[in-house]
């Protein structure tokens, strides 16, 4: 009996100590739900739909509150005003990259997405400059996207209007565009290596959005001791990196310093220029991580948006018909759509924007972190504290977008049918860490979707009213359900 009492008292002391440590470490962090020892607030969050949980908590604790995922505090920022203040007004102070344990084990905090400090600033600056030099936002890259759109149409025609799952083919098109910038080549849509890479991308995106991966993010040590799908992610990334390494080796053997062909050549030239700089951030390891970042991010986000967009257009046939009517009127059937057309196509432009707003691809953004001790809304956020910025709360704001859960291009049209911009439209985030490839992604989405609608009638295989557009996962990103459709040539 004495032993039982001693054990109970000892356990109680440990729990109290854990609570005290958590509460004492909060300092002047924003208020939030009381965390449990060790596990924090994990039981108060639906790991299948984290953004919904954050919205519910914001109704209790306001637009800025603190959550503990495990023993680590995270400041949640909810609503347009708070998100803009954090990422734009205090952009430098919150420009750090927050913890993402699975990815950290893959890239060792290298690359342009998950690095920090000087490394991140130099690699981001270099990547932006190089992408612009290779045409991002210019006519030259538009020509590449148009050519790929034509290849996509020809490939879709081969289905002869029969039902097909568009997952792989809609991944091939944006992947080929980014490949042309990074590797100076494109794949045939039936290439086995290409399809294998597409499979790895899709599988990883699904796994990273699984409940298990959200638990692993809160308790990283689990990945060291337990089997699980995280090992498949590691294996898939290793395969992708091995492919990138082969490309880098080929480029090293054929490099012409005076005539760079693509992003890899430019990086290798930069490495030679800085070979005597012991502190240089331009290393083979950084090159592999940066190219892998661009390769994966430049493919998966755009392809998922296209796939989700076609599903929405299948369900909302009246919206599709109206966009096709505008395309027929402005472009016709005998030339390819171009970016200049967009200003004469307000409805189609609104449809593309509404797809991005509605699907809310990365609902809670990629985590940020404080780079210094910073005062934010009368709270003191210590250096290194992770920041979760709810993009859902911005893209689905019911004052800016009435009935935000309804797919309605009217959210981006004024009373005269003209396109209406919105400061709340931030699917690529905002501030210092906003997506490097935003300009390219916007171009791809408009040109690919417009070209598909110009050339095909989208025929569902079931009654449109029975089409379910609910994501099958909604954690790090929104994963659309699998579906089939018929591309009927017009």
TrEMBL record:
Signal peptide feature range: 1-25
Keywords noted in UniProt: Endoplasmic reticulum, Heme, Iron, Membrane, Metal-binding, Microsome, Monooxygenase, Oxidoreductase, Signal
Class of enzymatic activity (EC top level): oxidoreductase
Predominant place of localization: endoplasmic reticulum
Highest taxon in the source lineage: Eukaryota
GO biological process: arachidonate metabolic process; linoleic acid metabolic process; xenobiotic metabolic process
Membrane topology annotation: Peripheral membrane protein
Pfam families linked: p450
Name used for this protein in its record: unspecific monooxygenase
Taxonomic source organism: Ictidomys tridecemlineatus (Thirteen-lined ground squirrel)
Phylogenetic classification of the source organism: Eukaryota, Metazoa, Chordata, Craniata, Vertebrata
């Amino acid at each position: 009996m004495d032993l039982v009492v001693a054990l109970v008292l000892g356990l109680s002391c440990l729990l109290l100590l854990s609570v005290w440590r958590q509460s004492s470490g909060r300092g002047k962090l924003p208020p939030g739900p009381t965390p449990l020892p060790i596990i924090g607030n994990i039981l108060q969050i639906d790991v299948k739909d984290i953004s919904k949980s954050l919205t519910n908590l914001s109704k209790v604790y306001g637009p800025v509150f603190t959550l503990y995922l495990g023993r680590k505090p995270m400041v949640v920022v909810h609503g347009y005003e708070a998100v803009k203040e954090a990422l734009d007004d205090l952009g430098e102070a919150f420009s750090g990259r927050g913890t993402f344990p699975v990815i950290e084990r893959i890239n060792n905090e290298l690359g342009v997405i998950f690095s920090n400090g000087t490394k991140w600033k130099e690699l981001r600056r270099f990547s932006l400059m190089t992408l612009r030099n290779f045409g991002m936002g210019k006519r030259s890259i538009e020509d590449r996207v148009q050519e790929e759109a034509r290849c996509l149409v020809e490939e879709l025609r081969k289905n002869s209007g029969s039902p097909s799952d568009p997952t792989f083919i809609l991944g091939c098109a944006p992947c080929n565009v980014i490949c042309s910038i990074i590797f100076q080549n494109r794949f045939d849509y039936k290439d086995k290596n290409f399809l294998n890479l597409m499979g790895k991308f899709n599988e990883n995106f699904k796994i990273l959005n699984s409940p298990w991966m959200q638990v692993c993010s809160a308790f990283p040590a689990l990945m060291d001791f337990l089997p699980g799908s995280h090992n498949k992610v590691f294996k898939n990334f290793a395969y992708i990196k091995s492919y990138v390494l082969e490309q880098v080796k080929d480029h090293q053997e054929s490099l012409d310093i005076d005539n760079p062909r693509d992003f890899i050549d430019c990086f290798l030239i930069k490495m030679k220029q800085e070979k005597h700089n012991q502190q240089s951030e331009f290393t083979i390891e950084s090159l592999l991580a940066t190219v892998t970042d661009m390769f994966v991010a430049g493919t998966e986000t755009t392809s998922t948006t296209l796939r989700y967009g076609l599903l929405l257009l299948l369900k909302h046939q009246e919206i599709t018909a109206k966009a096709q009517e505008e395309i027929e009127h402005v472009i016709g059937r005998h030339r390819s759509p171009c970016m200049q057309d967009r200003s004469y196509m307000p409805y189609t432009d609104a449809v593309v924007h509404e797809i991005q707003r509605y699907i809310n691809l990365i609902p809670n953004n990629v985590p940020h972190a404080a780079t210094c001790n910073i005062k934010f809304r009368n709270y003191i956020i210590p250096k290194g504290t992770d920041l979760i910025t709810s993009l859902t709360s911005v893209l689905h704001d019911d004052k800016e977008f009435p009935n935000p859960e309804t797919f309605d291009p009217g959210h981006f049209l004024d009373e005269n049918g003209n396109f209406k911009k919105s400061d709340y439209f931030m699917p690529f985030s905002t501030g210092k860490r906003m997506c490097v490839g935003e300009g390219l992604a916007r171009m791809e989405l408009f040109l690919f979707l417009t070209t598909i609608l110009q050339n095909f009638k989208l025929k569902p295989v079931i009654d449109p009213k029975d089409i379910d557009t609910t994501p099958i996962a909604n954690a790090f990103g929104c994963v659309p359900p699998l579906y089939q459709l018929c591309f009927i040539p017009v």
